[in-house]
Write a structure and sequence with these properties.
single chain; about 425 residues; alpha/beta; Transcription Regulator spoIIAA; six-stranded mixed sheet; disordered N terminus
């Protein structure tokens, strides 16, 4: 590691043999006309064009063909990736001005994304960070494509097969902007139904570089963590909570901490370094908790981490909270970071009910004056409604919250359109 805290290594050019049989997009672009409402949205820079908004189409196409959207006066409006398998029929790459979508175009987008993350890479050794999100999909102008960086390993996640015909150009551009020793491919769940458009690509394969033998290691704010990019959730780690983990570390001194939905224990390691004396990590996944134990052990060079008592509980968080409440077990700090409860609009009511129940159960195991840190990563749940739900649940059981802070997305998870916002977190004290 360099004195500035950034990673120094000489990456060899990767050979992407798996891409050799994949055809590129059709030379003939698809011409589209759309509704007036869609025109207005595209003029505002929205990255999605839905199937229902298309009023006229020149011809059919395959995933990844380029579609050009014209306005009511036949003027260029936008160009993007066509996907006949999705209700998001076009993912917009360029608004306003025509462009040639090639390797140079992708390189420019990736360079802009890398510049935005530069402060993370330039941290001092004590706050070294070599794990971060390099590309945040739509919010970096590359809708449906995510790139996470784990030190020497890059993980590319696709949420639409429309990217497959463009992978050669994307990966060539990525190699010049952010070279790595290994590139792992992850595929969104929706792509499992469209194998014919994947040309043999599969989830978890190494597109370039050596196959993984065990987890990858990286730094976050001077702490060492592991991730499993092949089998782990998302790409193996949740970088979006980095700033909230740093905040919680500052609140942990001398505290008893309960970390619910702990996954691989990142919050637990941070509170341990912050001086927490007792930590309980709860998650339903046994492999995740095994990783949590290893992550804690990797950071025992910090005296506070070595001194902290760390208990892992492999059960459903709701059941654990209920049992702890009945037995009278209490904590000074409770961290609640559940998975998304609502992937569809119809699931929002049940998601809000789950958040309300979690608030009640969490406060039942929190001592008076304790701190609640409760998050939601459900994009379908509006932030104001989430915060209102948590506060209402606390008030109903006679423990109205005194809010400390409301937080959202970190530097490497920029938000450029309303639907792109998903993370919200509340820090509050309960009487």
């Amino acid at each position: 590691m360099s004195r500035a805290g950034t990673l120094d290594f000489a990456a060899q050019p990767l050979s992407y043999e798996a891409l050799s049989e994949i055809p590129g997009p059709a030379a003939r672009r698809i011409a589209l006309r759309v509704t007036a409402e869609a025109e207005r949205a595209l003029r505002r820079g929205h990255p999605w064009l839905f199937e229902r908004a298309i009023t006229q189409q020149s011809h059919e196409g395959r995933p990844g063909d380029l579609a050009v959207v014209f306005d009511s006066k036949r003027r260029f409006l936008a160009v993007g990736l066509y996907d006949p398998c999705s209700s998001i029929r076009v993912r917009i790459l360029q608004h306003g001005e025509p462009a040639t979508i090639d390797e140079d175009w992708f390189r420019a987008r990736l360079e802009a994304a890398a510049r935005l993350r530069a402060p993370l890479r330039e941290r001092t050794p004590a706050a070294a960070t070599t794990g971060y999100r390099l590309v945040h999909g739509e919010n970096d102008g590359l809708p449906g494509l995510v790139v996470d960086r784990y030190e020497r390993t890059s993980v590319l996640k696709l949420y639409t097969s429309a990217w497959v015909p463009h992978l050669g150009n994307v990966l060539s551009a990525l190699a010049s902007v952010s070279p790595s020793e290994r590139l792992v491919l992850r595929l969104g769940r929706a792509m499992a139904d469209h194998q014919q458009h994947l040309y043999g690509l599969c989830d978890g394969q190494a597109l370039g570089g050596p196959d993984l033998e065990g987890p990858v290691l990286f730094w976050e704010n001077g702490l060492r963590f592991e991730a499993d990019p092949v089998r782990g959730h998302k790409t193996g780690f949740y970088f979006d909570q980095r700033d909230n983990r740093a905040r919680v570390e500052q609140l942990a001194g001398g505290k008893r901490v309960l970390n619910l939905f702990a996954y691989t224990g990142a919050f637990s390691v941070f509170v341990a370094r912050g001086g927490a004396r007792d930590i309980v990590s709860v998650d339903a996944s046994a492999p995740a908790l095994e990783a949590a134990a290893r992550n804690m052990a990797r950071n025992r060079r910090f005296p506070a981490v070595a001194a902290a008592a760390h208990e892992i509980v492999g059960e459903d968080a709701f059941e654990v909270l209920g049992r702890m409440g009945r037995s009278g077990r209490h904590f000074d700090l409770v961290i609640v970071d559940p998975p998304a409860f609502a992937s569809k609009r119809a699931q929002v009511p049940q998601a809000l009910a789950a958040y309300e129940r979690l608030t009640r159960l969490s406060l039942a195991v929190m001592r008076p004056g304790g701190t609640l840190v409760q998050a939601s990563c459900s994009s379908r749940v509006d932030a104001e409604i989430f915060f209102e739900t948590v506060n209402r649940a606390a008030a109903r059981i006679g423990r109205p919250l005194r809010e400390i802070e409301r937080t959202g997305h970190g530097l490497d998870h920029p938000i450029t359109f309303k639907e792109g916002a998903y993370l919200k977190c509340l820090f509050a004290i309960a009487p």
